[in-house]
Amino acid sequence: MAGTFPFRRIAVIGTGLIGGSFALAVRKQNPGVSLVGYARPDSAQQARERGAIDEAASGPSSAVHGADLVYIALPIGASIEILPAIAAAAEPHALVTDAGSTKSAIGNAARNHFRTGARFLGGHPMAGKEVSGIEHADAELFRNAPYALMATEGDPDPRVRCFVELVRAMGARPVWSDAETHDWAVGIVSHLPQLLSVALANVVRDETDETGLPLNLAGPGLQDMLRLSGSPYEVWRDIFLTNTDNISHALDRLEQAIDHIRTRLASKELESEFHAANELYGLLRKQP
After folding, report:
1. Stated pTM of the model
2. Span 119-129, average pLDDT
3. Angle (nearest 5°) at CA 161 between 44 and 96
4. Which one, 87, 105, 117, 148, has least CB within 10 Å?
C-alpha cells in the first residue's frame, strides 16, 4: 500500500495488545504514516519506544485532531464513554472504528453521536492472546484472522473501502455482519470457549489434592484447553456485561451437549459424537 496509503494520520486510542498490534501492522505496511496514540502514560511511552506511535497525545480530542482514521482499542465500557469526545473532535472526513469484542452496545451509542461528518464503523479483529499489554503487541497478530466489520460488503463509502484494503494488507480476512448477528456468533465461538476454559481450570484446581494429583499428571492436552484461562478478568468484564443473553444461550447449549454425552458414556453411541466433532475440527483447520 506504500505510495497510495489512504490514511496519512492515524490516531490509536488505547495502545495495549490490540491497539499496539494494529499500529505496528500499519507501520509495517507504510513506514511513513503518522501515528499518534492516547493511552495511560506508561502504555503510551512503551508504544513510542517500540515504534508503534510517533507521539503521545495528552487527551482524546488532541489525538483525534487532524486524523484521517481513528482506531479505538479500549474496553467496551471505556470506548462508549469516550465516544462523545471523539465524535466532537473528529474531522468530518475521518473514519472512526473500534475493536471491541461485542458490537451492539457500542453501535447503539455511536448512532447517537455520529450523525453527520465522521463515519463510525464497528469492527472486531478475531485475534488476540491470553496476555495483554503493549509489550505483547505483534505486527502479525491479525494475519490469517477473521476481521468482523459492521457493514455490508458493498458499502459505497470510500472510507470503508480504504479501511477494508488496510485490513486485507495486514493479512486479515474481512467478514461482514450486523451487530446482533455478530454478538450471537462470538458468544458461541469466542465467549463460550473462554468460560469453558475458566470452568475447567476451576474443576482441576478444586479436585487437586495435597499430593498434587491430578494436576501433576497433566499433559499438553490440558495446557491447550486451559490456555484461555490465563486471560485476565479485566479484559472480559465488559464483554460479559454487554453480551449476557447470547452467552447465557451458549452456556445452555453447552449444558445440553454435556448432558447428551453423559447419557451415552456407557454405550457405543458416543462414537457418533466423536465423528461429528472430528468433522467440525477438520473444517476449522481448513479455514484460511
Report:
1. 0.93
2. 95
3. 35
4. 117
